Amino acid sequence: MDGTFIHQDSHGGGGVITDGDTQWMTAGGGILHIETPPESMVIQGGLFHGLQIWVNLPARNKMIPPAYQNLDSHLVKLFTTPDAGTLIRLIAGDLGGVTGPGSTHTPIVIAHATLSPGARMVLPWNPKFNALAHGLKGSGFAGTEHLAMGVGQTVVYGTGDTITLEASSHEPLDVILMGGQPIGEPVEQYGPFVMNTRQELQQAFDDYQRGRLGVVPPNGIQPFRGR
């Protein structure tokens, strides 16, 4: 993430996340959450760049107690490819013998990779995992097929034991790498709820409407909308 965000939740969590930080929240059995740019950024202007990534939980973990990790930038594991052409920031999971700090409930990997201009990255990958790369900045090529990719484009890899990327010769390439072992369960999703059946989805909405997920403190932060 680049920029600054303030946040608070119904379980007493909250704080500030800024450059390079990761907000790792497990919704589990239910949590309410609010986040907003600081007043100074809204008034004076500024840039904010972040990704919101949802990781599905298996049915057995859907109703576990909510949890939160504030992964400051210094907690994220950094390493490079052997030729030092690629910097990898490992947020969660195991990759290349390194383990990220994010607490997971199924085997997954989430990482941010920056390839120098012209660099080629070949990372070991669990062949039981699915895998994708999403372009954040720059341009390059993915896979052994040398498929062109750029900002906002996503490449889904086939089965294999490596992930291959190459940056264009004239600019770096930034991507988010994600993948994991497929859960293999039905998914019902609507709004902020992801369950396994339509009945469970209806129950989640009922729990929310009846206040069973808690409330953000009445004196908590509020989105700043000007004076």
UniProtKB/TrEMBL annotation:
Gene3D superfamilies found in the cross-reference section: Jelly Rolls
Pfam families: Pirin, Pirin_C
Residue intervals of the Pirin N-terminal domain: 1-55
Ranges where the Pirin C-terminal domain occurs: 111-213
InterPro entries from the UniProt entry: Pirin (IPR012093), Pirin_C_dom (IPR008778), Pirin_N_dom (IPR003829), RmlC-like_jellyroll (IPR014710), RmlC_Cupin_sf (IPR011051)
Record family assignment: Belongs to the pirin family.
Name of the featured protein: Unannotated protein
Native species: freshwater metagenome
